[in-house]
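Lay summary

Proteins are chains of building blocks that fold into shapes. Our project writes down both the chain and a compact code for its shape. Here are two examples, one after the other.
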Amino acid sequence: MKRSGLLHADLLGHLARLGHTDLVVIGDRGLPLPPGVPVVDLALVPGVVDLRTVLDAVLGEVVVQAHTIAAEAAGGPFPAWLDARADALGERRETSHEQLKAMLPAVRLAVRTGEETPYANVVLECGVPF
């Protein structure tokens, strides 16, 4: 039995199979996900489970070398919240929301949350621990 950290067995299994430069998106409840992308759906009701909780749990399990957010999120609470985790998130990249959605067919894993903050989606690029 796992002592601490992320306990969701399906999510842990997907994370364990990731490699260097693989992409993972953690998205709000409205992010359109393309067919064929593995999805771990954690949305229970609007606002629960929130993206911040999920991202913190994921960052406890994987190494991230860069992350991408939508430029439309600038000025809102989401980028400032990410700044507090800059050491764990690596380089920040910004792109349009449309371009972020165009990245989705290439992700190895999508995690849907109940988040309702506009443009609260982040694409993580996996790194290595050495």
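And here is the second example, written the same way.
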Amino acid sequence: MANLDLDKLILHFAHYDETEGKSPSTVLWYTEMLSAFAKFHRSVGATAILSEFNLLSERDFTLHEPNKPASPYTV
């Protein structure tokens, strides 16, 4: 499970949200934010697989994306 590619996980998460009745805008927001996270992770030379992610990689992404405000809950 830890070697799953983030792009596949994003797709599965979007399908899960759709089956849970989440609004299309919510599904899109999560998909875009998670895709940006995967893209950032690849841009720094890392592999975008589940086992590569940790609190530090999330904080690096948050600092890298200062123009996308997010609440503490979202982060």
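What can we say about the second shape? The mean pLDDT is 83.
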